[in-house]
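Question thread 4412

I'm putting together a teaching handout and wanted feedback from people who do this every day. The idea is simple: show students a protein as raw sequence, then show them the structure tokens that encode its fold, then repeat with a second protein so they can compare. Below is the first pair exactly as I plan to print it.
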Amino acid sequence: MGSLRAILRHPDDLYPMVKLKLAVRSAEKQIPAEPHWAFCYSMLHKVSRSFGLVIQQLDTDLRDAVCIFYLVLRALDTVEDDTSIATEVKVPILMAFHRHIYDREWHFSCGTKEYKVLMDEFHHVSTAFLELGRGYQEAIEDITMKMGAGMAKFICKEVETIDDYDEYCHYVAGLVGLGLSKLFHASGKEDLATDVLSNSMGLFLQKTNIIRDYLEDINEIPKSRMFWPRQIWSKYVNKLEDLKYEENSVKAVQCLNDMVTNALTHVEDCLKYMSDLRDPAIFRFCAIPQIMAIGTLALCYNNIQVFRGVVKMRRGLTAKVIDRTKTMSDVYGAFYDFSRMLKSKVDDNDPNARKTNKCLETILKTCRDSGTLNQRKSYIIQSKPQYSPTLIAVIFIILAILLAYLSAARPANICKNGFSGQLLVIKSAIEVNFCNEYYTWWHKPMAIFEFQCIALDPIYTILYQTNNLTRVADVFYYVLRLSHESQSAYCKAKWISAVRLGICAVSSVGNLHVDAVNI
């Protein structure tokens, strides 16, 4: 119901959401044939679907290297996070992990769910790692060694000061930025970025995650380690867990704003790093998570909900970011919009208001000085409504009908024979199936079943399926027609109400085998 409400409030989210869903499905099907590579890419999509999507855009050699780099560090992180492992066992594993990646036989059982599978079958990752180019191997080994040593250091060390906070984030995320920069350079597609800029790329993402995940981490059983620095939270409460209690709401929000302001200090470096990138695929790979981070901080700032529940960008906005982010002007536009959104929430009475505003003014000035803001599509400002209330009401009715259908039991068999002609379908968020249930219109046989699809969006998509290959193309208007070859069987129309309205919003039509698809 929440997704439906979000679509009604933001109908222009629908198209990028459908595109994203199709792209994710396509990426998940691009699994290599070799067993070890098949395991690695399958596991990548399980532990991070969004990362698995973005990584598919990279060239093959670099894509393989980044995939293995990501899984190695995920495995390292799994060891660090498993509180059931005794310290005297955990520390040596972390310190030696960079050597284990060369051992095809090594594995260590820990973690839960998909992470346990990753650790139990880590030999697949090692086998794939050993097939990478030597330059990639050296970069991954170096970062794994440094990260393992840093994690081991903080197993027995609390995050007391802001310097500790920066050091911990460097070990677990800044080094990821350094490693990726080395991989990009080893591919020959990018110059080697400075360590300062690479480090900031990682710190900005890591600090955003630490802020956003406060409640989940503080409530975790067994108790998770926390990385909010005492130097910040001790100004507001006596114990870090006190921030979640309602009586401390004012102090909690002030502490939150202090943490967000600290994270914003890395934005200038991030913008500089991204502006230096040349390869379009690498650029998108780096830029999309950064935009997601500034968007998340804009939502978290001055928001008590961080201490009450989950705060994250809605799916439609995430899909928009992925769909729109192609050039540096898109990045400047997104950072400008989300920084303005954040600035509008700054309370002059907040203890850190002056520092926060100073950070934001610097970011906004950098974005304005780029001279590209007039090219952007705003994420937060709508000059005029793009959809009339009537159209939204129609969409609501259609979605209600489709949801009612989807809640019913689906037939086991889908028609696979007896159809010829054209299958042209306008996109939306719902699935329609023509099934092995026979239908007569006005109680008489029908040789041809035909109805018209009417536009619901400024941009349309033909979705057609032939031999299990789904393709997408932008169009304006089409008719769906199914011609029956045999009068002994008929299709049941699940959308009688929609047909009578002259409207049908669909995204796909089962696994129908179509003789011809004409565009």
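The second pair follows. I'd like the answer to focus on this one:
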Amino acid sequence: MHEIDVDVQTNSNAARPAPTGPEFPDTDAAEEGSPLTEDLSLILDIPVKMTVELGRTRMTIRELLHLSQDAVVPLA
């Protein structure tokens, strides 16, 4: 017969660690020619369909990444 070690928590109200979101590398700090920018360049010209509350538009990932806060996006 095989023995199995099992850790059982008897207090169901015990504090649990808060879930965290995914961690991504800092793309702003990436130098030109680094593996991070080389990998990103593979997807910059992929068209992405974007639907917004006021309308729709089409743009590439490159255009999407160049949007800044308060950017005006022309709608089709």
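Top answer:
Good format. For the second protein you could add a caption like this: Helices lie at 35-41, 61-65. The radius of gyration is 23 Å.
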